[in-house]
Amino acid sequence: MRVLVTGGAGFIGSVVAAELVKARQQVIVYDNLSRGHRSAVPQEAELVVADIADRAALDSVLGQGRIDAVMHFAAFIEAGESMQVPEQYFRNNSANTLTLLEAVATHRIPQFVFSSTAAVYGEPAHTPIGEEDALCPTNVYGESKLLVERVLAWFHRIHGLRYASLRYFNAAGATPYRGEDHHPETHLIPLVLQVALGKRPSIAIFGSDYPTPDGSCVRDYIHVSDLASAHRLALERLADSTQPEALIYNLGNGRGFSVREVIEVARRITRHPIPATEAARRLGDPAILMASSKKIRKELGWRPEMPDLETIVSSAWEWMQRYPNGYLD
Prior knowledge:
Layout: E1 2-6, H1 11-22, E2 26-31, E3 46-49, H2 55-62, E4 69-72, H3 79-82, H4 86-106, E5 111-117, H5 140-159, E6 162-168, E7 170-172, H6 188-196, E8 203-206, E9 218-219, E10 221-223, H7 224-240, E11 246-251, E12 257-258, H8 259-270, E13 276-279, E14 288-289, H9 294-300, H10 309-322
Parallel strand pairs: 1-2, 1-4, 2-3, 4-5, 5-6, 6-11, 7-10, 8-13, 9-14
Antiparallel strand pairs: 9-12
Helix pairs in contact: 1-7, 2-4, 4-5, 6-8, 6-10, 8-10
């Protein structure tokens, strides 16, 4: 199978691309490298440097009659930033994905796997969150992804597109050669570990009065390798099906950890005091996001192999020690 992986030079996309290569799939990474890294792309994959907003470039790649599926990761991902520049998120995440889907429909690409997010749920009424729970984003990032999910449902209904929308929670951890290297970095685990590396003086805890056991936000962290295996299984399910399918799955470990708990685990692993300061809440941050992944476990047999926080943080710490300056391209 030949698979086009948009955003395949980014954190999650590159790990999924490597997973596909390992599974002996032919991979074409499509990335504009604005937030990704050339050196994160597996050597066995072909790299096309282009933007998903460029319909001509998409037609050039998809029109060759050799792409069996598209896995779509190209997106802006920062919830806080989305509340400051919503227009950029709706344009890049929603409008540009529509351009991609138009090209997919035109060239009759039969399978599409979409990188969605738990942010589509917003502030949940209960936890853990199930796939049938209400969709009510509290930030523009979540709304921009939800718009794509709605478009996918219509493309499925009208064009027969077989698709999977994977709503994952907090992707974290690292593989030996691929980890988080965002500029600027906004994700909690790499930020905490940057303090241990001496790259920042302290870590900020945004909000200490949430209705949680210690007052800080609670999140469900999932290792990026477990995310990658879920994407591969979803693609295999779509490829094996003779009927149009619309698969929607949560991806998480079903256990939440607070910001303070993450910091404590990082302190134990790094043996660094990691000073913490308290700051105001960030606009659009729900108190608790925790997944129920029963559906994908039952239907696809997916099982996280690295569900504990210590393993997730340790793998990220090992990668950051190996690459203290991140990717060098």
